[in-house]
Amino acid sequence: MEITEMTIAHYDAVLKLMRRTPGVAVRSADSRVTTARYLERNPGFSFVALESGDVVACAMGGHDGRRGYLQHVIVLPEYRKRGIASELIERCLSRLESIGIFKTHIDVFVDNDLANEYWQRRGWMKRDDINRYSLNRSSDP
């Protein structure tokens, strides 16, 4: 298993991984162009796990200068329970900490039970003190 920084060259494999994973939505915000922009804006914060050259897991990380954000932390089912997600997350968090960002968020769909259980088991706090509001000005719901 090799873990390496995610680049736009991994895009097709990561998109395939996203589409294969229940509880993960693929939207226009996940296009090649927007993903390239995200990776360029946040160099060195996103990682993929490779097995024989194939992407089997990913974790995208970034920040707004104050807070860190994780997105699309995904591991193929047959590779789960091997610590791959933990390693990817740790790399993202360590990179964020290296620039002084110590608080990180991740959004998880309410009905994604596996993901919600995963984050809670690892000590991430489900927030009940804030409401997240979104405004989508694109045609992609």
When the domains are counted, the total is 1
Subunit organisation of the chains: single chain
How much of the sequence lies in strands comes to: 15-25%
* Cross-sheet strand order for the largest sheet: 1-2-3-4-5
CATH top level class name? Alpha Beta
The global form is globular
Low-confidence stretches: none
Structure description:
This protein is an alpha+beta fold. It has one domain (2-121): Aminopeptidase (3-Layer(aba) Sandwich). The protein starts with a strand and ends in a 20-residue tail after the last helix. The protein has helices at 11-20, 32-41, 84-98, 113-121, and strands at 2-5, 47-51, 54-63, 68-75, 104-106. It has a 5-stranded mixed sheet with strand order 1-2-3-4-5, sandwiched between helices. The chain has 4 helices and 5 strands. The chain is globular and about 45 Å long.
Blueprint (SSEs and pairs):
Blueprint (H helix, E strand, L loop, with lengths): L1 E4 L5 H10 L11 H10 L5 E5 L2 E10 L4 E8 L8 H15 L5 E3 L6 H9 L20
Keywords summarizing the entry:
4 helices, 5-stranded mixed sheet, 141 residues, single chain, Aminopeptidase, 5 strands, alpha+beta
Task: Please summarize what this structure is.
By secondary structure, the protein is an alpha+beta fold.
